[in-house]
Amino acid sequence: MERHFDDELKQLNTDLLTMAAKVEEAIRRSIESLKKRDKDLALKVIVDDRVIDELEVKIEEEVIDLLALFQPMAIDLRFITTGMHINAGLERVADLTVNISQRVLDLADQPLLKPFIDIPKLANQAQYMVKSAIDAFVKRDEELAKKVILSDKEANNLRTLIVTELISDYMEKDTTTVSRAVPLLLITRDLERICDHAASIAEDVIYMVQAKVVKHHRERLQSG
Amino acid sequence: MSVSLNNDELAEADVRNDTGGEVKIDVERFNFYYDMFIALKNVSMQIRRNTITGIIGPSGCGKSTFLRCFNRMNDTIPNIKYDGKILIGGKDIFDRDLDVVDLRRRVGMVFQKSNPFPKSIFENVAYGLRINGIKDKNFIAEKAEQSLKNSALWDEVKDRLHKSAFALSGGQQQRLCIARALAIEPEILLLDEPASALDPIATSKIEELIHELKRKYTIVIVTHNMQQAARVSDYTAFFMLGELIEYDVTNKIFTNPSKKITEDYVTGRFG
Questions:
Q1: In B, which residues are within 8 Å of A64 by CB distance?
Q2: What is the ipTM of this complex?
């Protein structure tokens, strides 16, 4: 039976996908601004975050209305509550791209500390994980969600590698590099946090599809 | 915008400023009495065209009395009185020269318990047209089919139109009553607990139907099921002890009501 409630759910889905597209674009731009030391692009990320903030509030209101007015059950309930988590997660990712862009502004007028090799790798990992987590949400794909969660380890390894290098090879050896190394440390932490949010979205997708809680219990990913 | 009334002040519940829609029913300082008992106190509110307005409140709050005022169904009860105004389409329905039969033609009603006539499915829908003087058989057949389609019943009954209406399930009988009300093309449809005797599936069908019908009709629904009011209504009015306590867009009433007493009711703290 057709339900007019389904139209409301479709609207929520559409708005979440719009949110995801805007956040993916913010990630892409912030990384691009870092690689090209492009202050204008970094500023654009910072300014455009307001649009994402407004969309987050709009989606949050939609979710509250759906919960209050329709008393959703089962998959409908899981979709709506997952949507609420994903919405909050995406907004936090957007905030992290703002942080990255602000550090790009700090660095843009200073000489490059070192050629970017591992930070772009971590950035690629962050882009892959966010995109895949959203794809898993769109396709209700539990297997893809699992892959995203498991790939978080690579992000953590890269983060450790970059941080160790910046501290041991630069900051400890030459204190004059600190002002250029610290923004890179912060960018690294922000990229790794983006990966964490993507993994968290993937955990929510598994809950939505299977009603299985894998948050804080990654061993459950192995069992069916 | 949110409004409540108390004994000291009159605040007019005005939904016109929300979206600028045409006011279909305009209630002005309306009081209603059963003998010495005041059932409705100084109620003022506007109901916009092509919207669904839910009326909620605890038993005895006056919600059904209020609904029955719109087509003057209360006139049949002895020792009632009222004052104030109810305008439908700009005309006072209590004017002496108003034709009550014509009013009830324009303002259809469906009750809690389905009440089909002891006739065939087809004749139930055709009856209203016939007593309104329509004799053209083709016209009646077309109108009956259209009404049954509009009430989402046609596909289930098209092969047994001449069987007794009593052979239908409770949910089907209720949709037949809606079809019967729609056949004479009312402007307003009043629904008094239309799904309270139905199972969840039949209730869902009625709710989907109500949602569809608002394209053509102005709908006022009384329900003691708050969740139903939340699901189907564009606007919700909360009544208590004969007073209109709060009237607002439905999501406001159910997510952030202006009055504590409304909040206590919708959260189940009393009632």
A1: 255
A2: 0.75
